[in-house]
User: Fold this.
Amino acid sequence: MTVTNSETAEPAAVPTVRRRRLSWPGGESVTMLLVAPVLVLAVFAGYVWWRQAAHLDATESSILAWSAIRDELLQHIKLTALSSLIVVAIAVPAGVILTRGRARAAAPVVVGIANTGQAAPSIGLLALFFIWMGPGMLPALVGLSLYGLLPVLRNTITGLQGVDQTLVEAGRGMGMSAVATLFRIELRLALPVIMAGVRTALVLVVGTAALATLIGGGGLGDALNSAIALSRPRAMIASAVLIALLALVVEWIGRVLELVFRPKGI
Amino acid sequence: MTNSPELDTTTGRPAADISGAEITLDSVVKRYPGQKVAAVDSLSLTVPAGEIVMFVGPSGCGKTTSLKMINRLIEPTSGTIRIGGDDIRAKSEDELRRGIGYVIQGGSLFPHMTVAKNIAIVPKMLGWPAARIAERVDELLDLVGLDPARYRSRYPRELSGGQQQRVGVARGLAADPPVILMDEPFGAVDPITRQRLQDELLSIQRELRKTIVMVTHDIDEAVKLGDRVLILQEGAQIAQYDTPERILAAPANDFVDDFVGSGSQLKQLTLTRVSDIDLTPRTTCRVGESSATAIARAEQAGDQSLVVLDDRGRPVAWRFLRQVRRHETVQDGDRENMVTLDQRATLNDALDTMLTSSHGGAIVCGDRDQYLGVIDFDSVTEHMRALGREHADGAAPREPA
Assistant:
């Protein structure tokens, strides 16, 4: 150390305080988050313009009728939202149980079963529940939920396993109950990983929900299916674009949820 | 303990100030299923109230297991543990633990909670009113040397390792428990920070007089911090349980001798406290005082430098006169990054600190960082020479130097 150093009793080894910005959302993610809605709005505006300007025959007009599209869209959203809620309601508690005590040993088995559920062709899965439960929205919901289960279950288990065990022990050692430690420490810290799984599930479900039409489950698949059956390529493309737009919006919602649920400080 | 006006040797305070409780372990055994050898084999021990007892030993000797049995993170296979006379099994695990401070390596702060929330966990569980908790958080931050206004709403990742560990200590003290368990608390920080944290702990302990049980693998740390040191062999067999002085002077067996290491002169450096040496007074000045008067005072005393104190008498900087001269009034310094020695620091620490200082000395502080004086090379070497002479007189020289 040189004699000219002003604070002589201050060795360089003393770590300086890192002061990183913790404010949410960070500037970068805001820009990222704006891209998807702008794109979706632009494409949807293009669709509206085309729908009004194009000369459609009677069949096309009825497939793409505003009222029909609105109903199908609402059904599609309902299918996606409900099955995602079912997924979270089943997969998160299951993931919690599978990381506790003796149940830990069963985790690979359950993840294996969930893996098979996802590896099976989605249409086959829907057909299976159609055979079992008949046509309608209910078998579609069950099939979609099963299909979206894996990512949330896997991420819940991974997220909980990834929590630093010394923190869990610190909590217990201070007198927090096992339940309090789970809710206040473990789940909070695993939340970013769990939410990433939820986003994946949302994307899977919103895409697969287009197939619900095949077992009478409704959704935007109705329009696409009619267009295919009646060989109307323009209506086919139009309904496919609408499904893609909805998928983009749902994916965007997933990302927003991820940001909202990320605990401050991590 | 009776309420006789018995005085403690280190602080001169009445022993009645002790807020700790006695811990007794009676034939405690921990045997893990499937293991032939018990991890802890019949450990009996008394930790006196208000003392720091260090559990030290090679890895796998059962020191951490023994510690964790005191707050029932590990349940003993047999035997009894009492705190303040009460069997620890009398309460529920959680209730017991809320009454025992627990500090672990690196602080183990919860990353998603602010500093204040981390410290408030136990008081909250105990149902303290919010106002009292807020007050307590600030009091504790102040006690561990962190400015409450600056740090209470920060997240752990915004703190340095040493600061995180300080908050960890504050969290352990939060509900004012009589007993604090520490599991290698200063293991994860650099040597300079470790020394400061140790000094701070000694200073806090002087004030609070808790019963502290600390696990460490570092014999120097054990000797420095411990009122008593417990050296454990495999199976938590007691190799020696005694004061640091006795352990260094009279190791009970070869194991202890090996573990403690040799070099009696060097050992003296760990055993001698800064308070055993006469401090040199240095000219001090207050922040905001006129530089000219402060410099005049220093020159009259023949000092080249000035120790700058804040309004609470805590050193914030140590400046050469020419540095002071640059400003009209004495400027504030960076107290948190000031390297000072606690009066209970060892000569080993003192030498380390002096080596990094261009003043050839180190500032010594008492309770709550109050300035006491300066220790310099000359006084340390003089002290060592005196010890060396005593040593030479006492023991016949084995070989010519």
